[in-house]
């Protein structure tokens, strides 16, 4: 939860997990440890990737059980459609987060398959991210712009903020020659456009 930022691969399991997503984190850690165990015991040629927060095609836009970015897209889209004067978001807007488009993650997976040569004494996984973060407040304003919402953005500080900052150290993957290519504003525009197209076609997970 309070790992040194940006988070390096060595930080895994060096402190307490964030209580609000503990079970989700345990599931991801289990997959990483399984690959590491298979590699150590049976020489299984594998390396896990640990992506930062993802967004893009195929996301879940459910109003209560989606992640922050798709939840904001749906909320601001619906507010813009209704002509609402304001949208209220949870927390203070101060936490810092990093976001990666799923197309970038797909390219990183292929890159790692082609370039990475794991060995038993090497790291169990590689971080995948943009190396840049922004506040949830700035994210909300970017989503408001992408959806065409012109009202006021309010914040309910009685709701929890979660982890104060979460940014991955992507130095190792960058040294291998990979970097994310889709800027957040560009990714938001294309994601909102696709969301609206699929919403009209009733293809969005709501």
Q: What's the β-strand tally? A: 9
Outline, from the CA principal axes?
globular
Number of helices: 6
Fold-level CATH name: UDP-galactose 4-epimerase, domain 1
Name given to the CATH homologous superfamily:
UDP-galactose 4-epimerase, domain 1
Content of β-strand: 5-15%
User: How is the biggest beta sheet arranged?
Assistant: 3 strands, mixed
How many domains in all? 1
What's the architecture in CATH terms? Alpha-Beta Complex
N-end to C-end Cα span: 30 Å
Write down the CATH class.
Answer: Alpha Beta
Order of helices and strands: HEEHEEEHEEHEEHH
Offer a few descriptive terms.
UDP-galactose 4-epimerase, domain 1, 206 residues, 3-stranded mixed β-sheet, alpha/beta, 9 strands, 6 helices
Write up what this structure looks like.
The longest helix is centred in the N-terminal third of the chain and has 21 residues, at 22-42. This protein is α/β, with parallel strands linked by helices. It has helices spanning 22-42, 68-82, 102-115, 136-147, 171-176, 184-200, and strands spanning 48-51, 53-55, 86-90, 96-97, 99-101, 125-128, 134-135, 152-156, 165-166. Helix 2 (68-82) crosses helix 4 (136-147). It has 6 helices and 9 strands. The strands form 4 sheets. Strands 7-4-9 form a 3-stranded mixed sheet. A two-stranded parallel sheet has the order 1-6. It starts with 21 loop residues before the first helix and ends in a 6-residue tail after the last helix. The mean pLDDT is 92. The chain has one domain (9-200): UDP-galactose 4-epimerase, domain 1 (Alpha-Beta Complex), CATH 3.90.25.10.
